[in-house]
Amino acid sequence: MSDSLEQLEARLGDQRSRRGAPPLHLWHPQLSGEIDIRIAADGTWYHQGDPILREPLRNLFASILRREDDGHYYLVTPVEKWRIRVELHPLQVVDVDEQDGRLVATLNTGLRYLIGDEHPLVPEPSLDGVAVLQLPHGLSALFARGAWYRLVAMADSEQRVHSGDYTHQLGAGT
């Protein structure tokens, strides 16, 4: 696919849900092919080797991204499905804070998720157990360094973090 980013943005923007998150669980088009989009291990998105610098465009792509049972990542619309490459995790947790006894993770897309049973933390074995936040549609977000240090600072003396009734042992699985 040789579309420019502007053409992709226009096509995808026309097909996005007008309210809230797009209903990816309802969209099951046939594979359209591969598109030269790569998400590097540091969270940088690239198109044809160049970084995608426009945050709204990156966030648009992230809103239609899912990981399927085959382990691959796809940008999905009601009529198209394009495979992309992800080196480690597609998203990053850039901040974590506490609200009313619950931990809230902020992603590099601006979306916020309550850490808990619905969105648990799991260790990333390749990074000495640094946590990864499980997200909808088979996605995950690796903690950026600053957010990880902040989460570690929130841990109790036994290196557990608590979010409501949910508890996660930091460093588990290492």
UniProtKB/TrEMBL annotation:
Residues 22-87, 97-161 form the DUF1285 domain. Transmembrane segments: none annotated. It comes from the Bacteria. Pfam families: DUF1285_C, DUF1285_N. This is DUF1285 domain-containing protein. It comes from Mangrovimicrobium sediminis.
